[in-house]
Amino acid sequence: MKLKRIIQIIAVIIHNSYIPALLKGGLYQGFLKKGCTPILNCWGCPLAWYSCPMGGLQHFIALRLIPYYIIGLFGTVGMIVGRMSCGWICPFGFFQDLLYKIRSAKMKLPRWCSYFKYAMLVGAAIMLPYFIGEPWFCKLCPDGNLIAGIPLVLSDKTSDLKALVGWHFYMKAAILVAVILFSISIKRFFCRTLCPVGAIYSIFNRFSLLKLQIDKEKCIECESCRMVCPMDVPIYQSSNHIDCIRCLDCVKVCPTKAIKYEVR
Questions:
Q1: Is residue 199 located within the same domain as residue 227?
Q2: I need a surface site. Which of 29, 62, 152, 191 has the fewest CB within 10 A?
Q3: Does residue 23 fall inside a structural domain?
Q4: Do residues 242 and 202 touch, judged by C-beta distance below 8 A?
């Protein structure tokens, strides 16, 4: 688990460490921005080095073009590790892990809520951009507001951006606040219910080269795996669950060593 935390911190630094933005403002728009990171990380973040694949997907769909590069990125990562990138290198996922550590009343999320993310993917990230020509998921994304919208408005020295602040900014801020509050009480609330990137990768969990295997003869169904799982997945019931982010915490805590991972 300590290794995972170290990698998550390194991933945050790799994705968002454009220090000149802190000194002179603006965004990094160099060569690296032409490439996408495999996880959700807003293009508009002043510290971001790379583009967001979900923003890129909507951009091409809005232009009525086939996003070959984005499809290839999702397909390659998904076929190799499934949803593992969500568990190890996603800054917003790491942020939710930290939020859940705050002492509070904890709640279980009904299993059917996990399917909301597919509606978000199809509706806000595909259908609306295609028919309206605007990246609607980006207009709602709490990660975008946390690392891009709010920092840009607060750092605006000319007041040009502050003058544009209106109902949409406050709506997006309200979504962010709601996600933060839910994430304090529910494990990775956004990842499980609303993230379209997670929805795409979850499709590959059954087919990825990296898989989890459960030895039914050793498993005593003690739920140790579920207790440490950042997605609250009963992995002993479904090793290819759509919400499994391959963090491997369950492998380490299983008292009978019934859970193993393998690369096919």
A1: no
A2: 29
A3: no
A4: yes
- Is 60 in the same domain as 88? yes
Q: Which tokens sit at 189?
A: 């609330």
- The length of the chain in residues reads 264
C-alpha R_g of the chain? 19
Contact criterion met (CB below 8 Å) for 143 and 183 = no
Nearest to 38 by CA among 202, 204, 201: 201
155 and 230 share one domain: no
Instruction: Specify the number of domains making up the chain.
Output: 2
The one-digit pLDDT tens for each residue of the chain (264 residues) are: 689 999 999 999 999 999 998 888 788 999 999 999 999 999 999 999 999 999 999 999 999 999 999 999 999 999 999 999 999 999 999 999 999 999 999 999 999 999 999 999 999 999 999 999 999 999 999 999 999 988 888 877 676 676 778 888 899 999 999 999 999 999 999 999 999 999 999 999 999 999 999 999 999 999 999 999 999 999 999 888 999 999 999 999 999 999 999 887
Same domain, 167 and 249: no
Residues 192 and 126 placed together within one structural domain of the fold: yes
Provide the domain limits for residue 116.
Answer: 2-16+33-203
Does 22 fall in a domain? no
User: Would you say residue 82 lies in a domain?
Assistant: yes
The closest alpha carbon to 121, from 76, 185, 74, 171, belongs to 74
Query: Judging by beta carbons within 10 Å of its beta carbon (0-12, 13-18, 19+), is residue 87 exposed, middle or buried?
Result: buried
In which element (H, E) is residue 9 found?
A: helix 2-15
Are residue 118 and residue 181 in the same domain, yes or no? yes
Three-state DSSP class for residue 213: strand
